[in-house]
């Protein structure tokens, strides 16, 4: 609340100091708060989109200044450009300081979590850590089957469910997470009794209880790949499909509006990259590969070549990762800076791809993943993208398990994608390009049944 209100108050105070009118200062505060609420209403949690979170709050101040100028014009007072420069800068300074303070506060205040059942406790702990969620720690798990007199099964077992009140108090638990799955739970009546018992305890204590599926979506920003989540996702997407088919006009216009000038700006970089490839060893400059796009239709993706010309002489697709000796010295730079991806703007202009969406895969990979990962084929409901929600958080998949992890983010994007969300992902991509090692550790992966030998370069 302080992070949202402080810039508005700072801007309003500076306006009052300049004009001497209390009403004008209060109007500045009100318009900033309203603009901030409207802009942030559909934004994900700030820890998932730190750059966008700061940018939207800064944009709210600009919007407030613009509205104030319209109010002045409507009242016949004329524009006061000089009088609103100081409030704008002052609000930004307070916003930057407040954002830094908020990050420090989140790191210092620990949200203590306990899970019901220990089979997936470590999975959740690793997921929170790999996603960079600050201030959350899984303290341990509560045994949902053992009695109160049963010995602890591990160092992280806090006790039995009958000891729930004592556990929550003694370990200062803030969040209790359950993993109930009605689609696979054979003892629904017993599980319901446990939930009723814990709900009664939580209602008396400052403890919140949440389902694991909901925690994954709200805190980690992805769909958890289990039966309940996939069933809910399919239902939601079925409703959405009935309402519209094909790519919305607004998203196509956004692609054209951004990709057209970006292509002109990228042309010199593509030319320099092509020249570097030629000078470093010759061979073809562009690399074309057949991928699967919207509706399962195949198309040729275009990239600057970053590997040796004999990278796949065996004819078998293989994953590319950190330290891949098939990548040339020039190719490493092109990949690190993502210059090799710029020719795909031509795919966007032709309507084969979008700027934002799931990354397209080869047909052989798609067939195997569709057999082993639930709802994988749903990725083809929208156009593939140069960047996307999964790329921002995961980089390159690097393995079959990495593809499973990215699928969770892609499914989350399919449920929530819109023009504002696409703009947000574009902004976050700039940060991810600099801050994230695209071939670094992938973190914990959901395990698909079986292994995949085929992959993509």
Describe it for me?
This protein has 457 residues and is an alpha/beta fold. The chain is built from 16 helices and 9 strands. Strand 6 (286-292) and strand 7 (298-304) form a beta hairpin. The longest helix has 33 residues, at 249-281. The protein is flat and about 65 Å long. Residues 440-457 have low confidence and may be disordered.
Summary?
54% of the residues lie in helices and 10% in strands. The strands form 3 sheets. A 5-stranded parallel β-sheet has the order 3-2-1-4-5, with helices on both faces. A two-stranded antiparallel sheet has the order 6-7.
| Fraction in beta strands | 5-15%
Poorly predicted tracts of residues:
440-457
Counting DSSP E segments of at least 2 residues, the number of strands comes to: 9
End-to-end Cα distance, whole Å, is 46 Å
Query: What structural class results from the helix and strand content?
Result: alpha/beta
Order of helices and strands: HHHHEHEEHEHEHHHEEHHEHEHHH
Strand order of the largest sheet: 3-2-1-4-5
Task: Report the average pLDDT across residues.
Answer: 79
The proportion of residues forming helix, as a percent range, comes to: 40-55%
Round the Cα radius of gyration to an integer and report it: 26 Å
Shape: flat
Biggest pleated sheet: 5 strands, parallel
Number of helices: 16
């Amino acid at each position: 609340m302080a992070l949202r209100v402080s810039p508005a108050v700072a801007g309003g105070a500076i306006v009052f100091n300049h004009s001497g009118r209390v009403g004008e200062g209060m109007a500045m505060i009100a318009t900033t708060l309203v603009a901030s609420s409207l802009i942030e209403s559909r934004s994900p949690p700030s820890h998932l989109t730190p750059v966008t979170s700061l940018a939207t709050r800064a944009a709210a101040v600009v919007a407030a200044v613009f509205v104030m100028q319209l109010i002045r014009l409507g009242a016949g007072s004329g524009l006061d450009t000089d009088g609103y420069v100081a409030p704008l800068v002052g609000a930004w300074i307070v916003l930057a300081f407040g954002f830094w303070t908020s990050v420090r506060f989140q790191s210092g205040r620990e949200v203590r979590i306990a899970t019901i059942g220990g089979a997936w406790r470590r999975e959740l702990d690793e997921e929170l850590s790999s996603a960079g969620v600050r201030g959350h720690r899984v303290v341990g798990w509560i045994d949902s089957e053992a009695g109160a007199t049963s010995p602890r099964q591990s160092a992280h077992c806090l006790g039995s469910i009958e000891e729930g009140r004592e556990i929550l108090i003694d370990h200062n638990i803030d969040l209790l997470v359950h993993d109930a799955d009605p689609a696979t739970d054979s003892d629904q009546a017993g599980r319901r009794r446990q939930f009723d018992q814990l709900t009664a305890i939580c209602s008396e204590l400052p403890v919140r209880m949440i389902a694991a599926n909901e925690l994954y979506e709200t805190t980690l920003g992805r769909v958890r790949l289990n039966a309940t989540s996939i069933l809910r996702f399919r239902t939601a997407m079925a409703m959405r499909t009935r309402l519209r088919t094909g790519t919305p006009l607004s998203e196509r216009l956004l692609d054209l509006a951004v990709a057209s000038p970006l292509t002109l700006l990228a042309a010199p970089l593509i030319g320099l990259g092509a020249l570097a490839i030629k000078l470093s060893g010759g061979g073809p400059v562009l690399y074309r590969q057949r991928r699967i796009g919207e509706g399962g239709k195949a198309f040729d993706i275009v990239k600057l070549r970053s590997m040796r010309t004999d990278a796949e002489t065996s004819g078998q697709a293989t994953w590319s990762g950190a330290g891949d000796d098939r990548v040339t010295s020039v190719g490493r730079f092109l990949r690190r800076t993502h210059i090799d991806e710029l020719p795909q703007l031509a795919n966007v202009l032709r309507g084969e791809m979008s700027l934002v969406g799931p990354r397209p895969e080869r047909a052989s990979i798609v067939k195997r993943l569709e057999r082993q990962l639930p709802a994988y084929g749903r990725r083809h409901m929208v156009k593939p993208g140069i960047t996307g929600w999964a790329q921002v958080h995961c980089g390159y998949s690097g393995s079959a398990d990495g593809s499973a992890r990215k699928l969770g983010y892609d499914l989350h994007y399919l449920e929530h994608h819109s023009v504002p969300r696409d703009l947000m992902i574009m902004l976050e991509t700039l940060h991810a390009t600099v801050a994230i090692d695209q071939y670094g550790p992938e973190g914990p992966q959901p395990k698909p049944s079986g292994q995949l030998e085929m992959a993509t370069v």
